[in-house]
Design brief:
The complex is a heterodimer of chains A (255) and B (278). Chain A is mostly helical. Chain A contains 11 helices and no strands. In chain B, strands 5-6-7-3-8-9 form a 6-stranded mixed sheet, with helices on both faces. Chain B starts with a strand and ends with a helix. Classes of the chains: A mainly alpha (255), B alpha/beta (278).
């Protein structure tokens, strides 16, 4: 497996480079948008939600941004991943290459973006007066979780998209719904206990809540919570890998 | 030792299914009881085998199933029925210029294509200058790919692809690239590669080229295998007779007769003299 990947490493690097260049083609400041765009977005959100909807809550900025930053990453990575097969159809119908590389490459450029956004996020944490500590290292867990989870969802979506182009529209609606169900700008604590549990079914909310527990509460979530996240990530990648394996030679009939 | 062994290869495309006609049509046809899925066999029961050093030419009119067969051999497609067994590394040069990215520069595209063809970075670093020189694109290295003329694009694609040192090489209409001077150069380069003992498959609409380069012929028509053999002259003669008369020979005897008729013809040859030379 590792030897196989090493063989394709050069191709993988070149694909990542291409996807990154495609993303910022024609822009004047190029990659700086990766920092500037989330920065401006977050400032607007902060303005709207703290000035106009005054919320009497400690660290509301951190609360809001944890939700936005992680949800955007999920959205960007999976939406980009959805196109991975269709946009590379002219290549894999002519050359025999492992198709999952296209998806991984799209995800890498989303991850790099996300990394830069996280820097902005931590800046706001400092401004918001959040107390830093060693427990912040545990933030690696939700970050890695979301990366793996996104790859899994991307595998499933890109395969679905090649068979049904309707997927794109349905997924737009789905992400909007998920956005409002992820408690990004409102508080879950105002709901009864039973309803709060339902939120834990939402795999993106799991990551967001984890980050909030670390940054705002200064705690580390329970062991079961970690297992739940692990299960989601493994499940998605498992289903995605299975679909790819099963349809590996069927994709090209539908491009 | 058989390098390529294809047994009863059939490839089926399905048209008119649910995804093809859309939900509305699907429901309507289901209600009317008219819903059927059409099968289209691009290749039907194709059997051949090549030894080391063989060069097989595939001849046939448009839609004969040549390109689909090449995809099955190069492992891009899996045959619906039958089996293809290959031994060694394959370099398939199919529709050369697709898969490039218009916005990347010539240099970036060269590396990307090299990576796609399975070369290592070191190999590309070493060969890059040679590729550009062969393609005669020294002055265009940092220009976006989309600004090249179509001839230049094909030249670059050919130059990257022909560096390979594979066990099996598959050429789909790649020897008619660029202008006269480049054609000559690419033809010489190809001859050099073929002399190194690779096993090859060539698809070309120029029968002259096939006669020149191949020692085995596979003749396809609408997916059906008309003939496979090493009597290049006879098969090519018969094929040219078919092209001129549109009468498809049904068995070996008719092929022989068609070849004879072509040799003794008094009609003007369909192949232009210039094309024949190459």
């Amino acid at each position: 497996m590792i030897a196989k990947f090493a063989k394709h490493l050069f191709l993988f690097e070149e694909l990542v480079k291409r996807d990154f260049k495609q993303k910022y083609k024609g822009t004047v400041i190029g990659m700086a948008w990766s920092v500037l765009s989330p920065l401006l977005n977050l400032l607007v959100l902060r303005l709207v939600f703290t000035q106009f909807f005054g919320r009497g809550m400690d660290h509301y900025t951190t609360y809001l941004f944890a939700g936005t930053v992680f949800f955007s990453f999920f959205k960007e990575a999976t939406k980009g991943g959805m196109n991975a097969l269709t946009s590379n159809a002219s290549i894999f119908t002519k050359i025999n290459v492992p198709k999952y590389l296209f998806l991984l490459s799209k995800n890498v450029s989303a991850v790099i973006n996300f990394g830069l956004t996280l820097v902005v996020f931590f800046l706001f944490c400092i401004l918001d007066g959040v107390t830093f500590g060693w427990h912040f290292l545990m933030l690696l867990y939700p970050v890695l979780y979301l990366i793996v989870f996104n790859v899994g969802v991307g595998l499933i979506l890109s395969a679905m998209y090649i068979f049904f182009r309707d997927t794109k529209y349905l997924y737009d609606v789905f992400t909007l719904l998920l956005h409002y169900c992820s408690a990004i700008f409102y508080r879950v604590e105002s709901y009864p206990e039973a309803i709060q549990r339902i939120f834990l079914v939402n795999p993106v909310y799991l990551a967001i809540k984890y980050v909030r527990v670390i940054t705002i509460d200064g705690n580390i979530p329970s062991f079961q919570y970690h297992l739940l996240m692990l299960a989601w990530a493994v499940l998605m990648v498992g289903i995605g890998a299975w679909i790819y394996k099963k349809n590996n030679h069927k994709f090209l009939y539908y491009v | 030792m058989k390098i390529i062994d294809a047994k009863g290869v059939s490839i089926r495309y399905i048209t008119g299914d649910f995804k093809n006609i859309g939900l509305k049509e699907y429901v309507l046809r289901r209600l009317q009881g008219k819903y059927t899925v059409n099968e289209f066999w691009a290749d039907r029961d194709v059997t051949f085998s090549l030894e080391k050093g063989d060069m097989m030419g595939i001849i046939g009119t448009n839609g004969a199933g040549k390109s689909t067969l090449l995809k099955a051999i190069s492992g891009i497609m899996i045959p619906t029925e039958g089996k293809v067994r290959t031994r060694g590394t394959i370099a398939a040069l199919l529709e050369l210029t697709s898969g490039f990215d218009g916005d990347l520069t010539v240099r970036e595209n060269t590396y990307l294509r090299g990576a796609l063809l399975g070369y290592t970075r070191k190999f590309m670093d070493d060969m890059y200058d040679q590729i550009i020189e062969f393609a005669e694109l020294q002055d265009f290295q940092d220009r976006p790919f989309k600004q090249l003329s179509s001839g230049m694009k094909s030249r670059l694609a050919f130059s990257i692809a022909c560096l390979v040192n594979p066990d099996i090489i598959i050429l789909d209409e790649v020897l008619s690239v660029g202008d006269g001077a480049f054609r000559k150069k690419s033809y010489d380069k190809m001859q050099e590669i073929l002399k190194s003992g690779v096993t090859g498959i060539l698809v070309s609409h120029s029968v002259g080229q096939v006669r020149d380069m191949c020692n085995k012929i596979l003749w396809l028509d609408h997916g059906k295998q008309i003939a496979f053999g090493s009597d290049v002259k006879m098969l090519c003669d018969a094929y040219e007779h078919f092209m001129a008369t549109k009468i498809l020979p049904q068995n070996e005897e008719e092929i022989r007769a068609a070849a004879e008729a072509w040799c003794n013809r008094d009609v003007v040859p369909l192949v232009l003299p210039e094309e024949k030379k190459l």
